[in-house]
Design brief:
The protein contains 17 helices and 5 strands. By secondary structure, it is of the alpha/beta class. It has a 5-stranded parallel beta sheet with strand order 2-3-4-1-5, sandwiched between helices. Strand 3, helix 7 and strand 4 form a beta-alpha-beta unit.
């Protein structure tokens, strides 16, 4: 994941041009994971704040990337830009936290939050009531928007509906259904769609992924290029993914599987859900979506039962008390479901 003024993926360039030609003070950029919602939101913010664009051009031209404003966005220091991220993502992407939060985390008084909390939204409400420092208005980027709990989201409603002055919002999300209907109704929606396979493969190849491997990773990621890139870097060899079905069927132990797939229960559940989906496809005589064709001897009943169990486990996989035990249980259940 990138941010600031870095060049967008080619499938996002067209979307950016379309968005900048439209009017509106609140946008909801949505789509499945791995398409670049945050990058697109930041590109919109950069363009709105760019000081090389005159007021008459502001809805039809992209950021220059060279002016002081563009440099400040890239440096995460523009005074008229507020970027709301969960603390975990702020740390990952290098976005500054307030002094108290940073001190608490440095002193290990608590773990970084995965939510966008009420206190953060309250600070934002104070921000949008200010006057623009550089005269281009205020811009707010919130990602992932579904990380706001209901209390925080409700606190945002009035500012979102009636922003003070020239304030614009971009809410980026990978799960718009998880947002409050009142949030969705106050935004204009823009839905990202996966790029054509040839374009995505070319983009992966331009980032160092061997062309023949790019198709495997793209399929493994369900057509989502950024996810495919992350998988290629985490697992390196395509065999690590392609061998997954037979390793599960034979009852592989955690240390026999790619570390990226057993790093957390959530990672393993996600991979098993893809495997379960494809096993059902194979059983019904259809082509698998995430893997190359493989032999499956399990019954449809066992697979659908397993699918329901995985859906339940997905909701608790990030909150388990003992990750190691859960991973072992998931693998035992998977062997039973995939076995004869």
């Amino acid at each position: 994941m990138t941010n600031g003024n870095k060049a967008l993926a080619p499938w996002l360039e067209v979307d950016l041009e379309r968005l900048l030609r439209q009017r509106g003070h609140a946008w909801l950029v949505t789509g499945t994971a791995g398409l670049g919602q945050f990058e697109l939101a930041m590109a919109m913010a950069s363009s709105w704040l760019c000081e090389a664009i005159t007021a008459s051009q502001a809805t039809s031209h992209k950021a220059c990337g060279q002016c002081d404003a563009c440099h400040m966005v890239r440096a995460k220091s523009h005074p008229d830009l507020a970027v709301l991220l969960p603390e975990t993502l702020s740390l990952e992407l290098g976005w500054p936290l307030d002094e108290k939060t940073q001190a608490d985390l440095d002193d290990k008084k608590r773990k970084p939050s995965k939510q966008i909390k009420l206190e953060t939204v309250q600070d934002l409400i104070s921000f949008v009531q200010r006057t623009s420092s550089r005269g281009k208005g205020l811009v707010v980027v919130i990602y992932p928007a579904e990380a706001m709990n209901h209390i925080a989201a409700n606190a945002l409603l009035k500012s979102l509906e009636e922003p003070a002055g020239n304030t614009r919002f971009v809410l980026a999300t990978e799960d718009s259904a998880a947002l409050l209907p009142t949030i969705r109704s106050r935004c204009q929606s823009f839905v990202l769609t996966p790029p054509e396979n040839t374009l995505a493969v070319a983009w992966l190849a331009s980032d160092g992924v061997v062309a023949k491997d790019a198709s495997v990773w793209l399929k493994a990621a369900g057509g989502q290029p950024q996810t495919a890139l992350a998988m290629s870097r985490a697992m390196t060899k395509t065999s690590a993914w392609l061998d997954f079905p037979k390793l599960i069927a034979k009852g592989a132990l955690p240390n026999e599987l790619p570390a990226a797939l057993t790093e957390t229960p959530a990672a393993l559940v996600g991979a098993l859900q893809k495997l379960c989906h494809d096993a059902i496809c194979v059983t019904l005589g259809a082509e698998p979506l995430f893997f190359e064709p493989f032999t499956n001897t399990s019954s449809l009943y066992k697979l659908t039962t397993w699918s329901k169990a995985l859906n339940v486990q997905a909701r608790s996989s990030e909150h388990t008390l003992n990750a190691g035990l859960m991973i072992e249980a998931l693998l035992a259940e998977a062997k039973q479901a995939m076995g004869k």
